[in-house]
Amino acid sequence: MNVDRRHKLVRRYHVSDAALHDSQAVDHLLMQGNTGSGVWADPAYRSEEMEAKLRARGLKSRNHRKGKRGKPLTERGKSSNRTKSAVRARVEHVFGAQSNDMGGTLVRTIGLIRAKAKIGMKNLAYNMRRLVQLRRINPCPA
What we know:
Layout (H helix, E strand, L loop, with lengths): L1 E2 L6 E3 L13 H4 L8 E2 L8 H9 L3 E2 L13 H27 L10 H26 L5
Parallel strand pairs: 3-4
Antiparallel strand pairs: 1-2
């Protein structure tokens, strides 16, 4: 899911079957003309291939780092991850709202087309609800 970090609106999403790892679908989520130049993701998205893709598109990787067996993260790495978590939490708020307020995140459909429709409608409903919240916080001049 690609979420606007300022307004917490879903900008783009990708639905695939469970056989495809999330990190393999990142090409569908990266947008030309995105106002932000950073990509904030969890450690599953961190690889040399991913870093090269982001550099080729002029995007800066802000992905979490992870420790390895026998080589845990340094204090600097942990501190860096905490800073990144503040931004990533905004995306998690979207998942939390959909999970807690909109009937959960479990998709019980047969077929990928129906799953895409259900997730798309849920994202649309979330964005509409979020827009109402944003208008309440900052009303437009009439």
